[in-house]
Amino acid sequence: MNVVGLLQVLGQCREHGVDRVVFASSGGALYGDVTEPVDESHPCRPGAPYGISKWAGERYLEFFAGEFALQAAAMRYANVYGPRQNPLGEAGVVAIFSTVMLDGKPVTINGDGKYVRDYVYVRDVARANASALEADLPQTFNAFNVGTGIGTDVNQLVELMQPVCEEIRRSSGKTEQIPAPHHGAARAGDLRSSLLSHEQITRTLDWRPEVTLSDGLRQTVEWFAENQQGS
Fold first, then answer.
1. Number of domains composing the chain
2. What residues make up the domain containing 86?
3. Residue 75: enclosing H or E segment and its boundaries?
4. Model confidence at 230: pLDDT above 60
5. Among residues 31, 50, 60, 119, which one is catalytic?
6. Rg for the chain, CA atoms, rounded
């Protein structure tokens, strides 16, 4: 879907004279384990089929941009979270934790929970996409990291989210405390650390993250609380 679907889109862009494509790529899936925020020059060594498909997508995008006068921006997202995220898939830990905690149940943390991620709020990501769509781009093909450069592990994420969920539960008359999290088995293939530098997109498109993790988590939990009512 990621590779063939993109090729279908690019073929239609060529046929109908589209002059710019903004592509949803991935930072963590391309760069692999990194303990410091990395920039776009860091070697891309995807270690899973998903990352390989994104890397192949970028290469096809670069080819079409050079061959058919198309401008392209590959947006290498960090861990995007926020309202409306699907909590039913394997990704989206903030969405999953929000729904579980608001139900008053303990969350399950994979392994030791010391998996560091760069969490970037969806509204900030939308601004980055809009900037890439509208701004003057320096090259036919451009790659931009979209992240905060700030690492948070899963244990810390629970510590930030649980008080917010308990506060919202109390406001609706639910006084039971949310149980402590369980630690399950580690998930094969999970990166230990992923952090992205946003210096290039700041320099080129004047974009920087604006929503702090604590504010973004509160807005996300509040949205899930409002939309879980009656479910």
1. 1
2. 2-228
3. strand 71-77
4. no
5. 50
6. 19
Distance CA 26, CA 113 (A): 22
pLDDT for 90 beyond 70: no
Task: Quickly count helices (H) and strands (E) in the chain.
Answer: 8, 9
* Six token digits for residue 43: 């070697």
Indicate the pLDDT class of residue 229, thresholds 50, 70 and 90: low
Is 115 designated active site? no
- pLDDT value for 188: 86
Distance between CA atoms of 201 and 197, rounded to whole angstroms? Answer: 9
What pTM did the predictor assign?
A: 0.94
Tokens at 182, concatenated: 């369980």
Separation CA 156–CA 5 (nearest Å): 37
**Nearest alpha carbon to residue 120 among 51, 10, 37, 192:** 37
Dihedral angle computed from the Cα positions of residues 36, 40, 44 and 50, in that order, rounded to the nearest 10 degrees: 90
Task: Report d(CA 70, CA 10) in Å as an integer.
Answer: 9
Burial class (CB in 10 A: 0-12, 13-18, 19+), 89: exposed
Q: Assess contact for 1 and 20: CB atoms under 8 A.
A: no
- The tens digit of pLDDT for each residue in 95-144 reads 999 999 999 999 999 999 999 999 999 999 999 999 999 999 999 999 99
Q: What is the CATH number of the domain that holds 86?
A: 3.40.50.720
